[in-house]
Amino acid sequence: MLNIHKTREEGRLEFALDGRLDTLTAPQLETEVREDIENVKDLVFDLSYLTYISSAGLRVLLSAQKIMNRQGTMVVRNASEEIRDIFDVTGFSEILTLE
User: How many domains does the chain have?
Assistant: First the structure.
């Protein structure tokens, strides 16, 4: 299960994720990102409450990063040590801006 909390204001969009970002939930996030990313200059993913991320979830972040490379910036915040380890092992820590 994944709960997605969106906050949007003046060209900034933030997704706070709570739960598991996996094969079952990644399509939900991908749909929401694609619907709301137009005209966004700053995209933030807050992973404070994300407990797991699979390759499907990584693909959603990569897709969002590719879009934001053309139109603004993207930051991933508050990833747990376990999630950061996944980013390190997969090379995503080199692709994403982590805070």
Answer: 1
